[in-house]
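Example 3.2
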Amino acid sequence: MKGNSYYWRKLHSLLGVIPLGGFIIVHALANFQAYERGPEGFTNAVHFINSLPIVTLLEIFGIYLPILFHGVYGLYMAYQSNLNSGRFKYERNWAFTLQRITGVITFIFVIWHVFETRVQVALGNVTHEELGSTMHNIATSPALFILYLIGILAAVFHFSNGLWAFLISWGITVSPKAQKVSANVCMVIFVLVAALFILSLVAFTGDEFKEAASAALALTNIG
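Structure, written as tokens:
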């Protein structure tokens, strides 16, 4: 791997933006339906995503395998990195350090979140209609709410700062001016996407999600 580290790093960078960056944004917009339209809007968003053609293949090759590679190789890079923010007190070194730290947090958070949601659906323990209730149970636990908040902020920062680094490493932003502009754009992306997720998490604390799940379960039992 060391001999081809340049190409592995390029692939790692690319997958962090395409498709994983796109997945984060789509996931944020889908979850935001919980805040904007309540349980019905969130359920409709979930159904829309799961009704896409070849959704299983899209998940495997567009989400899970890229996450696995990006996460595992990212852990390897973090292990190999020299975190020098303590020696050099300037912004980009701190961003470099935070990128590695948030990468580890994000990888753990994503595994946990997927297990609590998608895996439980696959095992038949919950239905798509009950995902709102699952998120309600998580969001109404103070400890889990804080852990989710940390995971969300870590994931969105990792994506936003990674996008900035991607534009440099792929030769899109070459000049210092272009890099400064892209840094500001990526900061805006961080704020907007983080806001979508946080508002969604707050919305899941509402009792209507628990009640909606109970109604959906009752209908399923009647059917």
